[in-house]
Each structure stands twice: as structure tokens, then as C-alpha cells.
Amino acid sequence: MNDGPANDGKVPKKERMRFVSAEQVAQRAGVSRSAVSRTFTPGASVAPATREKVLRAAEELGYHVNDLARGVLANQSRLVGIVATRPEVGFRAHLAAALAKSLIRRGSIPILVNTGQTEEELLAAQKMLIGHRAEAIIILSGSPPASFLELAQRNGQPLVVIGRSEPDADHVRAGNTEASRKAATAFYDSGRRRLAVIGSNSGTPAIVERENAFLATAETLGASVTVAPGGDSDYDGGVTAGRALFSQTIKPDAVFCANDQIAFGLMDVVRLEAGLRIPEEVAVIGFDDVPESAWLSYQLTTFRQDPLIMAQRAVALMERRLENPDSPPAYERVIPELVIRRSFQP
To answer: Which ranges carry the HTH lacI-type domain (predicted)?
Structure first.
């Protein structure tokens, strides 16, 4: 008689989800529960022989300290929120990965919150992170509203912003102005006079800063400049802007793109639809130096933002704020380096 499904030898799901407890470690080691607790509490007093027995038992059983419970008791956690719009796109993806690596290295637990740029979405994300007692928030993109900053300050929650400056928050910024001026000057010095710049409708502070600095420098030098109609700051945005630029009677001979994703779309339009050669007829400079920039299909000359350096600077500001909550806001500025490849060689 078959009373039910045969046992396939697997541990029932309920059993699989039962974590090893400190009590089980104590029983295996033959010590008290408090001895286990002291062994895994930094600075606590415990006899060497007892510590050795507890650690051996913990290793045999696969025991790990319940950090979540400790955080609840201490009314804080090691969680750090990484808030970003479309974190899977372009440079943001590499920056989010670098931040996660840097945070894990210091013993923090990164939590990626994929949110929009509206006040409602950002505040919803922040309330979730405060509810989980995140020790800090790092914003990769978007403009945090004043209420976002005020809520963080009332809860003593450090806030680091990357890519823009806020008067009451620590921030890390790239040298957008310096790089954009360098791009316009390099084009002009190489004999290019019909310049163009492609930004985006997203209107993020970093992209606006790059676009404005390039435009102002080119006009000061005496070159003609076309500002391409902006789409999104991605490949499709570059395609749309490229088609608008190269459908005109007078076509640009050099284009500065606010990021590499835009540059990739532009370059494909220039070569595959307009039938022009890069860099002989059209020079292109991007911004970010994502890995695809070095692909043989693009060989894009671009300004490099090092995501690891940006992440390390952001984490350093976060640690400074945790140690000195009342210190004045601080910022780090990282100047991008021009990486020369085939799309433009000064």
C-alpha cells in the first residue's frame, strides 16, 4: 500500500530552512549559551580553551552569528542603501557593482533600490531603508528632494550623493567641466570647426554640466556648435540624436557625447546610415569609459570615470559621517582622464 510519495532522500523544506543556533553550538562544545555569545562578541572576555571549543563546534555545525538580530537589539544595522534610477544601464551598473564590493569589504550589507527620480519614489525608498535601520544611503543618480534630506537628518542617517552636489549632503562628483572643456579644445586644435554636443532629456546635473561646459568653450574658441535634440541618455538616445544631426545639410565633423551609451548609438548611425568614416570625417568623444568603449566595433575615445575610485571615495565620506555626525558637509571631486582610441586622436 502506498501511503504517500516516496522519500527522495532530500531534507524537508522546513528542515532545510532551520539555521544552526547558538544553543546547538553550546551543546556540541559542552559550554553555556552565554559562552558562545561572548566568543562571537568582539572584546568580550572568554577563556582561550572555551573559545577554541566554541569555534571548533561552530565550524563543524556551520554556525554563523545572527547579525540581523544583533542589529535589531542595537537599533541599527550594517545595511547601506544604494539608490539608483535604471542601475542596469551604462556606467551606473559598474558603479553599483564597485560600491557593493567596497561596502562588503568593510563589513556592510549593500541593498540596491531601483527607483525613479520623482519625490514620491525616492521617499518611498528612503522610508523602507529607515524602517530597516540602514546605517547610510548612497544615491547614484537623481535629485533628492529637500524632504529626503530632512528625513535622513532627523534620523541621523548619513547621506552620500554621487554625480551632483547638495548643500546638506556629502557628495562625490566627476570633473565634468574640466573634461568637457578639454574635449572642445582638443577638437578645435585638431582643425575641427563644425562641432556638436549630445546630451539628453533626462536633465541630470552631470549631463547638463558636460553639455553646457562644452558649448561655452566651443563658442569661446569660435567654432560653430550644434546642440543635438536630446533623448534618453542611452544607445537609443544616441541613435535619435545622430539621425537628427546627420540629416542636416551641414553636418558636424566632431561630436562630444555626454556618455558612452549615447556615443555608441551615434557612431552606428554615422557609419551605417550616413556612410561617413570615423574619425576621418567625423570625430567622436564619449564620457565614462565603460568596457564596451574598448570593443573593436567602437574603439571610442572617452573620458574615464573609475567606478572603484568613485565608490571608495563615497564609502570614505560615509565612514567620516558615521564617525563625526556633526561635521560640515564634505565632497570629493574626481577628474576624469582622456583615454585615446581610434574614434578621435588629437
So the answer is: 20-74
